[in-house]
Amino acid sequence: MAEEDAAEGGAPRKEAFKVALISNAAYSVINFCLPLIAELVHRGCTVDVLAPTWSQQERQKVESLGAQCLCYPLERKSLNPLGHLRTFLKLVGIFRTNRYDALLSYTAQANVWGTLAAAWAGVPRRVAMVTGLGYAFTADPEGRSPLKRRVLSWVLTQLYRLAFPLAHRVVVQNPDDLCLLQKICGLPAEKFQLIPGTGVALDEWPMQPAHLQPLTFTMVARLLREKGVMEFLAAARQVKGEYPLIRFCLLGSLDDNPGGLSTADLQPWLEDGTVEWPGAVDVKPWLAQTSVFVLPSYYREGVPRSTQEAMAIGRPVITTDAPGCRETVIDGVNGFLVPPRDVAALANAIRRFIEQPELIPSMGRASRRLAEERFDVGRVNGVLLPLLGVENG
């Protein structure tokens, strides 16, 4: 840390260690990074958080922790090179002006342009965190055009090959992503750090009693096809035809991602009473009314945060044997793994809990134990802090 001139008669004083966090959206910071920001501030760091725009509520949440919110230009859906050049140059200017000691970037474009700009500006330590490879690297569902996905995958591959060699460490959340990124970027294994997701503040997600009346199966996700929403709805309709008193809930907002669903896509399932869809809500009270959490995703997840939260409050999990998802379930211990896109297998896993409800409390306790062992945010931050050059202790 650089020293500044001491006041007359005083001892030399060190400047605060300056850390920048950059994401492609403020809501992502709110959802995933507040505990890390609080820990950095607690350790005496000056923290700036960069996102394209901030609502007043988002800004207040970050600033209440002692951090500062900054804006930078980003065209999230455009492939226009002039727009991305503008992003890069603006970030170079911000980094040079503020003279950060370390940068933590996450989300695809922030990882690319943040890392490149930080290297250009001379930020001493640069850490890029990949929270899942997302739409571009997800296997194509049947019947959907692969062209846009192939273009995005090729573009991102070239950009990752350009940016990630300039990062001091690339943080990934599951072994599948590590292997794929190591392969496409041609980087040594020691360039990567594996962590179990962004973690959950376990004291904010305390264990809840098992919910058995009525039996309720809940999915929480952005409404993307690749998240397995349609498979969840199809399985729910099958099971509800046999067990009409079973409750199914779908929580989450529409999304402008290329795989996003529309209200019209959901309408038939809402009209026949298969599922309840309250939209984007505070999930805590809904999870308290949940018997089993379901996420049949085949999206390239990091480690799904929604599943970690459900596990923390003691909910069994049904999810897919897919990258990121499989890290949350020990099959037969805290839930069941099913093949991606397999409606019949998903429906059978749901039926098993209906026919053996005694599994719900025991598997829920196992979920809580796994959350404590794997997903405690304190443990995750304990890995990230040294990577950023912040003393841990």
Number of strands: 15
Helix content: 40-55%
Mean pLDDT: 90
Q: What's the Cα radius of gyration?
A: 22 Å
**In order across it, which strands form the biggest sheet?**
5-4-3-6-7-8-9
Contiguous low-pLDDT stretches (5 residues minimum) are 1-13
Rounded to the nearest angstrom, the distance between the terminal CA atoms is 17 Å
- Largest sheet features: 7 strands, parallel
Structural class: alpha/beta
Please provide the ordered H/E string of secondary-structure elements.
Answer: EEEHHEHEHEHEHEHEEHEHEHEHEEHHH
Count of alpha and pi helical runs: 14
Bin the strand percentage.
15-25%
Shape: globular
Put the structure in a nutshell:
It contains 14 helices and 15 strands. With 393 residues, the chain is an alpha/beta fold.
What does the model show?
The protein is an alpha/beta fold. The protein contains 14 helices and 15 strands. The strands form three sheets. A seven-stranded parallel β-sheet has the order 5-4-3-6-7-8-9, sandwiched between helices. α11 links the parallel β13 (292-295) and β14. α4 packs across α5, α8 packs across α12 and α11 (305-312) crosses α13. It is globular, with a radius of gyration of 22 Å.
